[in-house]
Prior knowledge:
The chain is an alpha/beta fold. Helix content is 36%, strand content 17%.
Amino acid sequence: xxxxxxxxxxxxxDTRPLGCARQKLxxxxxxxxxxxxARDIGFHVMGYFPITPSTEVAENLSKMGANGEHDIVMIAGxxxxxxxxxxxxxxxxxxxxxxATSAQGLLYxxxxxxxxxxxxxxxxxxxxxxxxxxxxxxxGDHSDIYYALNTGWIMLCARDPQAVYDLNFAAIxxxxxxxxxxxxxxxxxxxxxxxxxxRIQVFDDPEAVRGFLGERPDFPSPLDTEHPKTFGPYMNDxxxxxxxxxxxxxxxxxxxxxxxxxxxxxxxxxxxxxxxxAYRMDDAEAAVVLLNSAAETAKETADGLRDKGAKxxxxxxxxxxxxxxxxxRQALRQVKTATIGDxxxxxxxGGGNLSLEVRAAIQIDPQNHTGILSRVYGLGGKDFYAADxxxxxxxxxxxxxxxxxxxxxxxxxxxxxxxxxxxxKGLPPIRAEEVSRGMAHVQRDAATGRLKVELEPLWKMTGVxxxxxxxxxxxxxxxxFPTLHQIYNVLEGDVVVLFQTGxxxxxxxxxxxxxxxxxxxxxxxQNGAATLSGLVEMYHERIRRGExxxxxxxxxxxxxxxxxxxxxxxxxxxxxxRNHRMMILEYDNQGYMNxxxxxxxSTPLGHRTSTSEVGKSLPxxxxxxxxxxxxFAACHLPYVFTASEGYPEDLMRKVAKAQWYAKREGxxxxxxxxxxxLNWRTAxxxxxxxxxxxxxxxxxxxxxxxxxxxxxxxxxDAADRRHPVSDWLxxxxxxxxxxxxxxxxxxxxxQDEADRRWARLKAMHExxxx
Length: 770
Ligand SMILES: Cc1ncc(C[n+]2csc(CCOP(=O)(O)OP(=O)(O)O)c2C)c(N)n1
Ligand code: SF4
Ligand SMILES: [Mg+2]
């Protein structure tokens, strides 16, 4: 789903109304438009965390930055909460700040939003709106942005890529207006607007934009050491309510400022953005009210109905906060009935937020008698076609004619399903007895206190049925599945798995099918460890209370990608500190692969990802990979290991030990290097040489830590197989640029860091007290 920014067609300079700045016609998606606006604005800092469908904003900016097209400092957060914190700090610092997110990303950042609004620190947040979990759905609706309604942020709605571009400029001016001084959110529809390309006008010269924006006013900043201030004091009654009055007054000021800014924007662009977009509403008796792209569909339908003599029109707000209540009152005064569609429900309230707020707005107007039909539609990416708009108009016209609102609230487009229709049966669940084949024998060595494992020969393992059924949707050559197969080969008994969001989860559980033949739980990848620890404790407590049989013997395993160990690091460390009897096994493919190969903190220095692009100005990721195994070692777990699917016996021995410890003593963490041919840009069958080279170069050492004792389980020096890291880097497309002579210092940097970490491990191996 990637779009690349393309060159404008030659000679595509457009004519424009007199007085507007010079613009050229381009063919752009909403995400590209947001990135281009960011370039033209010249933000100081962007803090972000990737999430579909907004990720492309950062990806496009990464590519443009690598080619020297802007100098925005791009900071990848450890999650959206971190990204929002980065943005808050950067915005306090006095420069212009950008973020982009969607769905869970917005919800994960949400806690920071009122902090920023309450302390009146402007910035811009683009949201490619998407359905929120659960269940997880990556496509568009408005359930995420409705959560932001009460945060104190200005909310602008961009119905198409052109509006995304234009409203980003307006966002700066509105937010930074001295009477407003609030952060601003620009919301556009996920995929429909974020990914579909349209013809848009783009400024030829960013100076026109800079002239429109002016300098960012000087608001109080902790970087002003001449005038020290306290930012964010602790504030109780009676002051807090006064702070909120001021926020409310800022919103009222925005009500006046926004039309002024939009008028100036129109002068610069030639495009008008009324606060409430009214289409063919002059004598309309029936109206449809919709947010963003669906309104454009309804306009076409309205044209068709008008041709047939129906008096219909469309209303669609360009601003959601402050809510254009007065504009709605005016626009609906003569309208007999309006169907108001919401792409999200406010469960139990009898309508989505837009319909509830319009109802509230007109209710205080004695001249208004508009009947309202609230409809929840288009959830989880369900398209809104002309036929849907026709139904909305039809219902409004019928109610207008009869003078009766028959069904005030309903879902539109839900499919009840047919009881007789069942998905085809797949493989049945697999029982513990079928998969417990004694492939690993674990014993504690009385002398050392450590475990010894004897494995059955590899050929015997091929007879162990898999707890994952065939037919998942991973790329050919994907390393996640050999890794899982090796893990499952040696695990005995009942296993309950929790997968955090990532490739291994996405490709195995597309509803209504599942590849998992044992109990499987998904939680979002920031919180799986906490969830599993709760499940583990409930299991033990229910056994203690006699509610579950004491003979039950479940092993609890969390599977996470390396990305899950960025955003989910806090809860994972929490679980480690509490030492629950469970395992966290991380398949490390060095990036956020299921969302399109963005950098993770495990991505090594210099490696190319879609957010650490390579170009004349930037040579890939700018800092070293995180040493996650050592972080967990510092939690003093009973057992920590590293492994690779390229060393199956070593991996299986360690997993067998892990099960022993997780059942008896507490938490285990394992980091497993796992091949990703798609995003490492290698042949599908290159796993063996690539993984071997990573291990032989000591970039990825294989070792284990049992009760604090570090043991190297493979020593390339002793095996006389030590190679320089360049032998590994030359095997992958994502690192080939590093072999250019000008990038020799980066390769040296990777080598030095690998050598340093290896020497430290060797010392720990040799000295039990280290
Ligand atoms: C709060 C939140 N932020 C972002 C995302 C988008 N997202 C889902 S999985 C993922 C990356 C997962 O990377 P990793 O854990 O390494 O697994 P991989 O895809 O590489 O297998 C991202 C960024 C999300 N679902 N929720
Ligand atoms: S992108 Fe990489 S990790 Fe994901 S399924 Fe494809 S090969 Fe596997
Ligand atoms: Mg990954």
